[in-house]
User: Fold this.
Amino acid sequence: MAGDNKSYGIKQWLMRGKLSAFFICLIISGFLWLSHRLNQTYSYSIKVPVKFVNLPSNKLLITELPDNLRCDIKTSGLKLLFVLMNKPFKELTIDFNTLKGDNKLQSYALNYGSINIKSITKIDVDIKKISPDTLFFATKRGITKNIPVKAHVFASPERGFVLSKPVINPSFITITGDSVSVNGIDSIVSSPLYLNNIHENYNGKLNLMRPSENVFLNLHEINISIQADKLLEKIIEVPVTLINLPPGTLVKLFPPKVKITYSAAKNDFNDITESSFKAVANYSKRKKYFNKLPVELTIIPSQANILSTEPFEVEFLIFKSQ
Assistant:
């Protein structure tokens, strides 16, 4: 019996030893894998918030100053880990006095030689690209003008849906250039947008078309949104109003109301009521030997699409005529 207990204890000790060895090997392999990964080279994009100072006073900016710069970096996994530990990054101040300008192109280059990215990342990394990498200006000659933006949108809804009028933002931009070129421009148009079978809201951007080389835009793209609403059908009863009835004539209509079936966007249903419609029967349009008058809808809400009117004619009975 004592021998069996001893044998059992040895087996337990061996099992614990094997389990410990397994975990030790697992830890070592994990450490080796991590070391290998951290020593590998990675490409990564970071966004750095920026603030610009000392803008040139003798030039006019024709593009928006970016709030962020996208920096494509290449570094080891270990350095990348330290870089990401510094997020969110502090705002980087860029002094135009330190930037290299090109007077011919009226531009200033943004590159790692003139921008101290290390002050943000806290560690040396290889910067492959900065975007945007150039800021463009125009000489302060000529005139400026605020003009509306026109979006060229060609959109069709899927069956059973209706599209709202496209909303663009901003709706006005500023153009700069010589007086001859600027005075002849009354609007700026966007690149065309084609959308078919739309059944959900659309949000996107459109590029603006520069009218000539002598005209500069303060923006080069606009935001556009189009709302798609599902059409619902509804039937509403509307009283028929008799018009052009001769004095002294008493007439009764049968039926006194008509049923109007219409479709509208779900969001517009609460705004459409019986008073939104007006149905009339014109007594002057009666035909000889017939006691029926056509029903006309003289008032229809702009949100409604009329599908049918029942009945499309009403009968009339003359009770009194002088």
Notes: The CA atoms of residues 203 and 225 lie 4 Å apart. The chain has a mean pLDDT of 79. The helical segments are 2-39, 77-84, 118-121, 179-183. The domain at 41-139 is CATH 2.170.120 (RNA Polymerase Alpha Subunit; Chain A, domain 2).
